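Data card: per-record layout.
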Amino acid sequence: MTRHVYLTKAVVEAFIVEGNLNERQQYIMRTRAIGYTIAKQARELNLSVDQVNKEIAKLKRIYDATQIHSKILPPRKKNSAELNKIK
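The structure for this 87-residue chain is written out next.
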């Protein structure tokens, strides 16, 4: 299973700043947060779906490394059930 985090505006903007993302990575994060599909992102970036998936995998690694030192970024949850769990 993939690990999840809710992409709120505060989380996205904090990750962009703290993760020192480039323009392509910023675009991918912002458009994923508003609901673009990977195929739509690929079309707009003139990339293949595979290239966008590779960039997303890289963003996940950057997020995990950045989240350890961040006071704003929440840890990624193990699955969607854990993500939606009410405390």
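Known properties of this structure: Residues 9-72 form a domain with the Arc Repressor Mutant, subunit A fold (CATH 1.10.10). The mean pLDDT is 88.

See the next section for split statistics.
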